[in-house]
Design a protein that fits this description.
4 strands, Thiol Ester Dehydrase, Chain A, 4-stranded antiparallel sheet, about 90 residues, mainly beta
């Protein structure tokens, strides 16, 4: 898997349920990702995301890609921001 596809796979699960349930959607402000090992094609991969913290309109999240054996293949941190006009 190319690094660009791995970054996409790390991006998607970072929009965690805490953001899904919000009345206003958030926008991805930044993402820092690392691909730690080559991601094997044709093998099961687990993509997961979780909230880290929130302050006002900002929500920080993490995500990871795990191999079928539980090995950490990639990880990322994200900042999601609710647009100012929508933050009510």
């Amino acid at each position: 898997m190319t690094p660009e596809i791995a970054w996409g796979a790390l991006d998607c699960p970072s929009y965690v349920p805490a953001l899904w349930d919000a009345d206003v959607p958030s926008l991805l402000a930044w993402m820092h990702a690392e691909v730690l090992e080559p991601i094997p094609l044709g093998e099961p991969i687990v993509a997961t995301g979780w909230p880290l913290s929130a302050e006002g309109r900002k929500t920080y999240t993490g995500s990871a890609l795990l191999g079928a054996d539980g090995r950490l293949l990639g990880r990322a941190r994200h900042l999601w921001v609710q647009p100012r006009a929508a933050a009510g």
